[in-house]
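Bumping with the actual sequence this time:
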Amino acid sequence: MAAPSRNMTLKLSTIADTWIKDLFRPNLQLRTFLKSLSAHPKLTPEAVQAARALRDDDMKKQYPLSRKMLKPASIPLHYDRLVEGFEKSAQGIGRPWWKIFFGVW
């Protein structure tokens, strides 16, 4: 088996180093997976390119979501509340039981 080129290994390691840490799954990090993948003997340039595209949000830039998609007419604040919930959860702030019970945000 041919070892991956030093250049590809270095590029994937750099991508792994710049990957953000997942606060919700501290024991399962994509950064760790990419680091181990960089040493894999069958590492391809396509795999390195795919990891870079994921990190840089290439698809989000190529296919931007419309305002109608981000704010659906039925629940316009859904995604805003979802992001707020993740941010508060990362800080350790939970919703009180009565807000959950009554469906209040």
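The tokens above came from a reply further down the thread. The radius of gyration is 19 Å.
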